[in-house]
Write a structure and sequence with these properties.
This protein has a three-stranded antiparallel β-sheet, with no helix packed on it. The protein contains two helices and eight strands. The mean pLDDT is 94. By secondary structure, the chain is α+β, with helices and mostly antiparallel strands. The two termini are 34 Å apart. The chain has two domains: 39 residues, no CATH class; 89 residues, GMP Synthetase, Chain A, domain 3 (2-Layer Sandwich).
Length: 145
């Protein structure tokens, strides 16, 4: 199969190393020559809210994987997708003292030359095919619009 490697880089930035003061910002480089993004912790955990946090990136990965699977299935079925938008949301919750992203709701809005029943079926197939959804214990649901 394939491997997927990143390089994460962080430094103290010359700041004192205490929980209150160390920087949460870090860089994630995907592959040589590809984009590098700056990420941070959630503002709840002293991060910089202008950068995505790991929880945001999990929701984004689930949404992106579902969309890519959906579009691939449509293309193979000779259906034309004009646009795709997803207002996805993830829920970081406490279960027995352990915080984790318990559930993610995908809310795709698709413009495509197929009827609602066909689109709903393709969303089901896309969910089943999504590598990321198949890799996590987080409950992922699709609210078809």
């Amino acid at each position: 199969m394939t491997q997927h490697a990143i390089r994460l880089t962080w430094s103290d930035g010359g700041k004192s190393f205490t929980y209150e003061s160390y920087p949460r910002e870090h860089q994630i480089a995907f592959k040589d020559g590809q984009d590098t993004i700056t990420a941070s912790a959630s503002p709840t955990y002293r991060g910089d809210g202008k950068h995505g946090d790991p929880e945001d990136m999990l929701v984004a990965a689930l949404s992106s994987c579902h969309m890519l699977s959906f579009i691939a299935i449509c293309a193979k079925k000779k259906l034309t997708v004009k646009s795709y938008q997803d207002d996805a949301v993830g829920f970081l919750e406490d279960e027995g003292g352990k915080l984790w992203v318990t559930r993610v709701i995908l809310r795709p809005k698709v413009v495509c030359d197929a009827d609602a029943a066909t689109l709903q079926h393709i969303h089901h197939l896309a969910h089943e095919a999504c590598f990321i959804a198949n890799s996590v214990k987080t409950e992922v649901t699709v609210e078809f619009r």
